[in-house]
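Hi R.,

Here's the chain you asked about this morning:
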Amino acid sequence: MKITVIKKQARNPQRVSVFVDGKYSFSLSLDELVKYKVKKNDELSEAEVKKFKKLSADGKLRQRALEWLLTRPHSTRELKDYLYRKKVEPEHAQKLIEEFGDREYLDDRRYAKWLVDLRARKGKSNRAIAAELFKKGVSREIVDEVLEKSEGESDRLNALVEKKSKLSRYANKPLKLVKYLTSQGFDYQMVKESLAKHYKDF
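And here is the predicted structure, written out as tokens:
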């Protein structure tokens, strides 16, 4: 079997398509092309073609995983779940996780800061945010550290009470608002203190 054409891909100029005996067979990154000294007119055995096809599939998977990873910050657990859904072998998945971590594409602390900021702007309680971070596999150490440095929870609660107390469903029903806020993870005592500022008879 002979390599008849090596063509740079239009959509991804960092990869080339390799044609064997006139038909597309596999693709390689430019680095792989140099590393394995692949060139036109090389003769390949069946085993070599099989090896390059596996390398090609792994390269495409890595590219897709990286593109997914860069859409927004992700936790290590999220990437593990993504690779599991793609049916990636555990050993290969671990290599990708380590590589992306080393290159700082994957960072649980950065993900936690991003999520805390996002949820805090929506008025979520620290307890609710922590629960979501734990679910995403972030360690308690990182969760505690990031939440400690975030905007004050009491300020968030006061802003939420200010907003909710103006709604007709809560206008003269502070106990109903207490129930809602505590269900969202806010501390009962903190809720009572905040509502006392907005309801005269509370």
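One quick note: The beta strands are 3-8, 15-20, 23-29.

Cheers,
M.
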